[in-house]
Every structure is written in structure tokens, then in C-alpha cells.
Specification:
Its cofactor is Fe(2+). By secondary structure, the protein is an alpha+beta fold. It has a single domain, classed as Sandwich (Jelly Rolls). It is 23% helix and 25% strand. It is built from 6 helices and 13 strands. The strands form 3 sheets. It has a 7-stranded antiparallel beta sheet. A 4-stranded antiparallel beta sheet has the order 5-12-7-10. A hairpin with a 7-residue loop joins strand 8 and strand 9. The protein is globular and about 55 Å long. Bound molecules: 2-oxoglutaric acid. 2-oxoglutaric acid binds next to strand 12 and strand 13.
Length: 260
Amino acid sequence: MKLSRERIDEFEENGFLILPELFSTDEVAVIRDAMARVFDRDEPANIREKKSKLVRTATGLHLRDEAFSRLVRHPRLIEPAKQLRGEDLYVQQCKINVKAAFEGEQWQWHQDFSTHNQEDGVLEPLALNLHIFLDDVNEFNGPLYFFKGSHKFGPLRNWHDTVSTSWDLWVIEEVDVRRVAETCPLQSMTGKAGTALIFGDLMLHGSPPNISPWNRSIFSMIANPVTNAYKKEARPDHQHHRDLSPIQPLADDCLLERIS
Ligand SMILES: O=C(O)CCC(=O)C(=O)O
């Protein structure tokens, strides 16, 4: 799948792209079945919420289930990502972020690049975060909030928050969030299950707790150019994979082909 010139310009201008219902209901069902299998296991790569102990983030998915191994090579994700970066990419991270109804906790304001740079020694903000909504995401069940165009500010001042949630995160100083808010409008990332979202490493974003009665699960894969690979191994492999093999896209129907 190729992006048009207009969509590439939109990505450069806003810092993100929404691709409504890029994946079909049947494909989302395959991913959700795999999610249930992975979440059932009590493994360190399933990181639980501080309070409820429900799974918040399940990482290393493409090494834990064949459906995810195919999904990280899906042409509808990988071809646009390669087109935007113009070079080979590796799977830096492959996870699902859940926000369970009533219980899902926040993601503080952050740029992904702060973590990639501080923890993994990635030098340039070139990684792309590729999301697929696995539930309908609405205004109430904890959508991501983006400061549209915030990538143009470059890397912002950050600090390491190891207290607020069970996922340690490099978060952005409030003074910088206020500065960005002066010119960049906030937009919530909502859409039907199967919708995809592509955003860059410098997007200033966060998301509120889910106090609604509706679950919210989002698949998230970070794809980074091979030439921009990690230089530090502070985090475990399931949070930043060491395998730098260039991602080779599979056939478009790869998710629906039988898994033997
Ligand atoms: O799942 C969320 O609400 C936030 C996820 C996020 O911030 C990210 O993927 O970088």
C-alpha cells in the first residue's frame, strides 16, 4: 500500500496520519484472538497496572505468537512506514497497550524519542509508532491525545517518572507542555476498530485514565531505521529488540491465512 504525496505532506505537517479501518473486522478478530492467548500467560513481558494488576502492556508479541509475527510484517503497515523513512526498518518494539474499562491508568505527556534516546541510545528521532485500534476508540475510553504539529519543536525537556504508573516513562516537563500548547491544538485519536495511526518519535502525546465502561486496546509497533539502531542495552529485549534484520513485508492476506 502506497501513501499519496498529499498524505505524506500531511504527515510532515501534522506529525501523524490516521488510516481509518485499514484492517477488516476479520483481521482484527485474528489479532484479538492472539491477544487473548498472550494475555493468559503469566510472563514478565506482560506488565500489569499498579492498582488493578490487570495487564496494561504486553510486549515482545511477535516473538510470542505467530499472528503477531505476521502482523509486524504486514504490508499495510510496513510499506507506508518504509515510504515515509525511505530505508529499511527493524522491529524495535511490539506491544499492545490496554486500558481496561474502569481500571486503565494514564500515559503521561511524553515524546517516544526521550525514552529511545535516554534508555536505548538511539541518536535520531526517526522511529515510527504504528498503531492499530483493536476496540472502537472514542472520546471516553482513554484515547491518545496529540498536540498536532508538536514534532516541529524538536526534543523537549524530560525527566524519568518511575512512580506514576507501572511503566517507567521519560515524561515532558510541564513548562514545555505549556509552551507547545500555546500554538499546537490538541486532538484525540478516535476511530473504529481496525483504524491505524502512524506517528513520529517527536509527537508530544499522552492519554487519560479509562473510567468508561468500555475496554480500549491498541496494538503498537515501533519501527526504527536499521541505520539508527540502539547503542545501549539498558532495557530488556522485549522492550527494545536487538534483532536488526530489515522487516520484509508478507502478502496482504497474511493474517487470514491459516496458522498451522
Ligand atoms: O496507549 C496509550 O494510551 C499510550 C501509548 C503511547 O503513548 C505510545 O504508544 O507511545
